[in-house]
Amino acid sequence: SIDNHQMGDQSPSHSDYSSGVDSTNYFQQCKYIHEVELVNMKLQMRILETHLETKDRLLRNLEDIIDEQETRIANMEDFIQGRTAEYTPSTVMLHGISALSIDFGALSEENLRLKEEMRTRMRKERINDLMEADEDYESDMTSVSGEGCESARNGTNEVMTQSAIVASKARAFIDEHQISRLKRCAEELKNEKDELKRLSQDMKDAFTVCMGEVRLLLESKTVDFFKVLMERYKAEMERRKTLHNQLVELNGNIRVFYRIRPLLSTRDQAAIRIDSMDEGVVHLEHSSGRKTSRSADFVIPTRFTQNQIFDKVSPIVTSCIDGYNVCIFAYGHTGSGKTYTMEGPSSDPGINQRAILQLFESAQERGRDIEYTIKLSMIEIYNDKIRDLLSPSSSSSSSLLLRRDESGHLSIPGLEGRIVNSPTDVENVLKEGSNSRVVAATDANENSSRSHVIVRVHVHAKNNVTGMTTIGRLNLVDLAGSERVSQTNATGQLLKEAQAINKSLSELGNVVFALRQGQKHVPFRNCVLTRMLEDSLQGDSKTLVLVHIAPEEAHVCESISSINFAEKIGQVQTKVNSAFKRAESVRKSSRIPGKLDSPQTTPKKTTK
Ligand code: ADP
Ligand code: MG
């Protein structure tokens, strides 16, 4: 193979190469096998030798045994045949056997004893366990278990049974004790529970009694306190009214009353109501749900009849007899009840008729030395034009003019004046004027609520004793509706009308405001209405503005506008002293402020 490599044989035969290796291995393997076999054989030899040796030894032993047995047999034969006295080996064996049987008996006895002792111990342990379960009965347990242990120690089955009985008795005894103890505990707990129950009931009763007493005490105290408060409140209210009246008088005798007409339909909801405690306050609920309160000199209770209302007004009316000038204005939006207050239904006439009749009656009462002449005129102001309602020739086109006469007084030349001598005269004249207003309005396609109607009463008094004459003027004015006419949509006649009404009401507000504030300059000249009433408004004349309000929710906006007007003209300027100032500031602060719509009347001039 090596040669083959050296000869450059690039691909030596695999078989040649492997056969060379195989022969070497084979040789080596054979050699090993032989060697191993040799060793094996040697080993087998050794084993055989050992076997042989052992066999030899055994043979020798057997021979010895046989010899010995033969000797024994011989001996036994001798013994049996009586040749020898005793057979030594068998005697020894018998002795051994008897000794062993004795030992065996002792051992079994010992075992039994140990077994018994073990059982006793176990029982004892069990009793101990039971004893530990109830420490209170340890002594009982000890004695019982002691008994048990003692009897157990006897080590007989009978005793065992007895101890078991004793143990079960002990258990029963303990159980009984435990049960009776638990029963006692339960009884005690029940008693305690009953006691607590009784106590809680007693507490409850006592608490109820106490609370009743406290409630009674509180109630009586609260009622007393409330009474005192109410009295003080009323007293303060009276004081406020008195002070306010004094203030109004000091500022020129201008008063602002509210008249809230009743709801016309039961389906309607009232958004305005009068304070139940203070007749000078109205509460207004806005459509948003917000509530505000406003005050005036007086709020005529809704339940007041026409007659009751006139009772409130009559004192200033009668001052006309004494030569004072009086103006009564009915302000409010259309439908708020102005005409109802001033004219009223023929079955229940309003202020106009009642006032003239009152003047008539007063004149008759006083008429011994004084000669009274009562003259009536009725005027309508529409679009700033004066129309005579008592002149037969009066029509919507003709108008009168205001002139200042030689004495400096403003007069309306050509104005019809009717002297009235009886209540019937008064009624007839008023009816005539009212009718001609309606006719004139219909002729001109006007709405009768779009003009101001003035019933003017002249009370001429001539003192026959002194020869002095006085003239008192009473102006009863049913103003045009104060509602806003949308000027964006209005055109022509409607726009003119709306502008005239807005202007005249606004100027009237300014004039009343200025008078009430005691201002030096009063803007009478800005419109026909105020110019015509100039004489009757200034000086020591008396003015009453009746602001009419419809309580329905639907009229809330108009009502707010009217309330704003009343607020504006109702302000009082105090110049007298600081005490009055304080009183007024208290009155003002008692009003709940609320932002209302901007007033329809915006006075141009205000003073601090
Ligand atoms: P205005 O003159 O302000 O437009 P009216 O006087 O014509 O309002 O009143 C409108 C309606 O309300 C009328 O039907 C009138 O009878 C009624 N009314 C007004 N005030 C009262 C009142 N105090 N009691 C009963 N009805 C009234
Ligand atoms: Mg009217």
From TrEMBL:
Its main location: cytoplasm. It comes from the Eukaryota. GO terms for biological process: microtubule-based movement. It is found in: Cytoplasm, Cytoskeleton. Residues 598-608 have a biased composition (Polar residues). InterPro entries: Kinesin-like_fam, Kinesin_motor_CS, Kinesin_motor_dom, Kinesin_motor_dom_sf, P-loop_NTPase. One of its GO terms (molecular function) is microtubule binding. ATP binds at residues 332-339. Belongs to the TRAFAC class myosin-kinesin ATPase superfamily. Kinesin family. This is Kinesin-like protein. It comes from Pristionchus fissidentatus.
